[in-house]
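User: I'm putting together a teaching handout on how multi-component assemblies are represented. Below are the sequence lines for each component of a complex, exactly as they appear in our records. Could you produce the 3D structure of the whole assembly as structure tokens, so the students can see both representations side by side? Please keep the chain order the same as the input.
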Amino acid sequence: MSVTHPLGFEAAGVASGLKSKGGKDVALVVNRGPALAAAAVFTSNRAKANPVIWSQQAISDGLITAVVLNSGGANCYTGAAGFRVTHSTAEHAASLLGASAGDILVCSTGIIGEQLDLAKVTAGLTEAAALLDSEGGEDAAVAIMTTDTHPKQAVVARDGWSIGGMAKGAGMLAPGLATMLVVITTDADLSSDQLDTALRGATRVTFDRLDSDGAMSTNDTVVLLASAASGIAPDPAGFAEALHELCSDLAAQLQQDAEGAAHDITIEVVGAATEDEAVEVGRAVARNNLFKTAVFGNDPNWGRVLAAVGTTHAAFDPYDIDVSMNGVRVAHAGEPDQSRDLVDLTGRAVHVLIDLHAGEATASIRTNDLTHDYVHENSAYSS
Amino acid sequence: MSVTHPLGFEAAGVASGLKSKGGKDVALVVNRGPALAAAAVFTSNRAKANPVIWSQQAISDGLITAVVLNSGGANCYTGAAGFRVTHSTAEHAASLLGASAGDILVCSTGIIGEQLDLAKVTAGLTEAAALLDSEGGEDAAVAIMTTDTHPKQAVVARDGWSIGGMAKGAGMLAPGLATMLVVITTDADLSSDQLDTALRGATRVTFDRLDSDGAMSTNDTVVLLASAASGIAPDPAGFAEALHELCSDLAAQLQQDAEGAAHDITIEVVGAATEDEAVEVGRAVARNNLFKTAVFGNDPNWGRVLAAVGTTHAAFDPYDIDVSMNGVRVAHAGEPDQSRDLVDLTGRAVHVLIDLHAGEATASIRTNDLTHDYVHENSAYSS
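Assistant: Of course. Below is the structure of the complete assembly, with chains in the same order as your input.
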């Protein structure tokens, strides 16, 4: 049920023929109110897709009636014609819903640099609008999948109100945001400013710290819609905590279904001088192809970890740095410590702990290994 | 002959048992003078191997008698014991050659975090010193190979003087410097200051712009030795031009033998506001795994190129940027231009031209594709 679990939301997902391999590819999520408060965060890639450019305007007043999402085409680097497709999509959704086009958020995902077929999108939207249902969350979650192997959904329920979410994203997973589309709904009664604060706080430490393959998307969007249909206005701290739990759940689901991945790696950096430096160190390791291939081979190659740390600007002394892998401290004070033969990397979960001994700040980055299946999925066909 | 082509140099390469798979693994290159001028550049990785820490001191007076190189172990993150191995190696070479230990440059390559067997190194050095020969360049070039499939050597001859060089490096190939060891010799008569200027100028636009896999080494060293044995003092501009030619040749050889690579990719950025921005853009594309896997699959996926460009801080307008691949302009003014079906990527050489239309600066980055063989080589065994 995901996005339709909170009261006040309906959704649908249909097949419009946008995806070359068929299947559902247009999703519609509608907020029936009474409130239409919303917040959103977008990719920081300067190459922004047309739906991102549109949606940044749509969210500026903090009101969103509905979110239209399509797989089968990113509508990025498609010029003025591509922007008209997004605009017409919003106009068509608005006319179906009796809303204003300026209150329609649009998200697209798929290949960059190819025009999206507007006729297919609008036909799909017409069908989806007729199928809108308070049980339609699952269909919507399926319709936004690209190379995902299964839909990602989550629900966090509190006393009298709840948050639901769906996400897609398997490749181009990197920060700012991790390449993905995420729609989150809640029936709590919160203002768009309160939603914005909570959403930025949650994404900063969840989706933004998922860095599967270092490739930043042009289309990333996370949107949070609040209907107030529960009639309950939770205290902001309690809402923020619940939202963080939901975002963390969805981020973990994205990591676990990343293209071709055989390991889910958490890189935990402790003892950093600042949180930013902890993130920089974690990300440098997460993006090191030699480290990532070593993990694929179940090889606890901590030298590759430290070589990656050495490329950062973070405060640390190369002679006072520790590395543990799955609980075994393999390097201490910049020298070999326990035998790497004690490290078992045969399971899917890998935990790398790096202690910089330079302060009190910490951060964790989630990533994946670099595998034959990743190379295959991204070389065998265009995406 | 490579490093022994210029007059005044002898070299040798022997098998000392450092490499688990056997083969030559200790190389010695000696400058017989009359001059002993030298210059060197080292990795900018803050995790520097013990031989790099030693050699930065050794080069500080601009005089180097000999270079000792070993494969079979990087001697990095091996602590005080590891530094003593490097120091003892230099002492032993000095005693064999009747030189000062402070004039011996040491280079190591291999796995990080494992102690190097000093007894094997010194036994190998003793044997190498006895085999020193003015035809020994080839043996030395073989002894520094790790996952290289063949030795890399080059000679540039001018009127009465010449430059010779050898290089190793197949993985951890990234800037600052591209992970590698390079020894260059010349019989020209130049001061260490002149050598330093010429070497920094040449490496900046050759080895530093080779970014095969984005992973920066802890051991990179490029050293240039000048014997003055030709008796000729070329004009510095002419020497710089010849040195650039030699470095460019060796960098191309490194690229062509990069681990698992199926394509040699040149990313040429033009129309940049500054050279630094051109380099930043080229490197962002060179490090994008989705672009690299697409090239492996012969897929001219220019959307992945532009998504990578969008992550940079370089000046450009997303609606005024062109991309050509192997001569076909696939994107113009941020929109699809000629059909991607016209692009033939089946050959080994791939040329990506990105015009930012933001200025006059240019830069080229050399990289490789991301292949199954790269994943296999870096996951199947520790290196």
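A couple of points students might notice: Residues 9 and 31 of chain A are 5 Å apart (CA to CA). Chain A is about 30% helix and 25% strand.
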